[in-house]
Amino acid sequence: MSVVRSDETGGRLLGLALIALTAAGCVNGRTVVPVRMQPAALATPSAVDLSSHEATVRGIAGIIVRELGLPLPETVTVYVYSSREIFEQGLVDDGRVSRVRAAELSDFALGVGKRRQLLLHQEPNVGSAEWVRLVAHELAHVSQIELAEGEGRAEQWLAEGLAEWTAYRVLERLRLDTVVRRRLVAVESVRDHRPVVARRLDLETLGTPRGFTVRHLREGSQATYQLSYLLADYLIARDGLDHVVDYFRSCATRGDRHGKFAAAFGQSLEDFEREALAHLAKFSH
Hints:
Layout: E1 26-27, E2 30-36, H1 53-66, E3 75-81, H2 84-93, H3 99-108, E4 111-114, E5 117-121, H4 129-148, H5 156-173, H6 179-190, H7 194-197, H8 203-206, H9 209-219, H10 221-239, H11 241-250, H12 257-265, H13 269-281
Parallel strand pairs: 3-5
Antiparallel strand pairs: 1-2, 2-3, 4-5
């Protein structure tokens, strides 16, 4: 998701837990933390600190930039909201999301990555595997938006799949999980997924932000995200991460959505869907 850049005022966490923040850093349940993303300012992956939201974001960013080679903007402003209601309002005020969309997102999302922004619902256990996965996933979206110079310009299933791909590698790097286990979980999640069983993924619909939301609310969030992960995982294994990154970068220029995919990967979206279905068929019962 992408929006205009919000202001970066507010106190810094300075490595403290959120519950210890003073009123200077946390106002009305909303904390604003500008985090510098230049490589020199990022923690090295061998010294990742997961003791606070700021440290967790900085540590994950270090892995994403230094080890995966994905770009991030010079500064990402992290907003942390202390309740679901404040999170929803923050999506409107800070993220410039429509009120209808904010209400929809706040029903299921714990965090949203936008252009040079992370908007997070407060989590006390910032070192947990699931929270690290969420932050890494949303930072990957920040990277994608930076590459494409805007929101929703690439295939949404690939954006979500690459975000999960990135998150699983961060988890493995921090020894919180393994890519092999996450891939097995994904396979189990999609075996009986209706579009896979029906052999019609409908990547045309799954490729738009709105279509993706409708599909995962209707067909199941877990299975839809895991399907996207397996598609991205296959594409990266086939063509390489650099090739996928170049595709997102190509989305910064004007042009036909389907034409950009075909130019980047040498086949139409329909041909890729057929190839992907053949790949997924290997995992059927």
